[in-house]
Amino acid sequence: MSDIVLDNVTVEYPGGRTAVSELSVRLTERRIAVIGSNGSGKSTFARTLNGLITPTIGAVRVHGLDPVRQAKELRRRVGFVFSNPDTQIIMPTVAEDAAFSLRRRGLSRAEIADRVAAALDRVGLTGYADSPAHSLSGGEKQLLALCAVLIGEPSLVVADEPTAYLDGVNSRRIAGFLLDQMPQQLVLVTHDLRLAARCDVAVRFDGGRLVDQGEPGPVIARYERDQDLA
Ligand SMILES: Nc1ncnc2c1ncn2[C@@H]1O[C@H](COP(=O)(O)OP(=O)(O)OP(=O)(O)O)[C@@H](O)[C@H]1O
């Protein structure tokens, strides 16, 4: 079950700005790129998927779950990665930060240590477990943020411009992990059209509306053409 379904979703922010208008879409692909110009509604759409934002009108179902009525279960199933890795680090050491989402799950210390070791290994941070989290480089911090999300074993990862703060080398590292190594379904909000091109499907927002969707190549080409004409 990897369906992401939005039915006639409108999101209005306090003050009356409509960020997403009458959005109906069903997405089932593993890697979903979300593209569009600044302020077009991409982040708002992404935040409806884990209940960070509740639609003013309409309904969202993510892997069969309602983000409003099944909020707790949904947050376990949907991991969210933000742009700025500094804002995602909560605990003093790398291992403690990686383990944060496992609290209150009734796991033994040994189980937590095993899971942390496996998760750090997956993102290539073995050896950093006892390091202060804030001493990591930007790219390593973003890998830690991903690790902290993946350790909870989500079925969907929503990443909102996860490479925006990173240099070329670290962007490639994060993108390679998200796109090529991670088995989970991915919703990737990005201005990097080369990353969008590597996804299985692209959706494009403009002025709060979903204006195009399909194979990334043609969707990106039409977006670039429209930008050139603007
Ligand atoms: N918390 C908020 N309160 C009021 N308006 C908001 C809020 N967050 C976003 N908006 C507005 O909603 C619209 C869509 O914003 P959103 O962040 O979803 O766009 P975006 O496509 O992700 O933009 P960007 O590419 O610049 O990150 C914009 O006009 C924005 O100003």
Automatic annotation (TrEMBL):
Coiled coil (UniProt feature): none
ABC transporter domain segment(s): 4-230
Gene Ontology CC entries for this record: ATP-binding cassette (ABC) transporter complex
A Pfam family reported for this protein in Swiss-Prot or TrEMBL: ABC_tran
InterPro entries in the cross-refs: AAA+_ATPase (IPR003593), ABC_transporter-like_ATP-bd (IPR003439), ABC_transporter-like_CS (IPR017871), ABC_transpr_CbiO/EcfA_su (IPR015856), ECF_ABC_transporter_ATP-bd (IPR050095), P-loop_NTPase (IPR027417)
UniProt key word ATP-binding: yes
Keywords assigned by UniProt, alphabetized: ATP-binding, Nucleotide-binding, Transport
Gene Ontology MF, one: ATP hydrolysis activity
UniProt keyword annotation of Repeat present: no
Record-stated family: Belongs to the ABC transporter superfamily.
Protein's recorded name: Biotin transport system ATP-binding protein
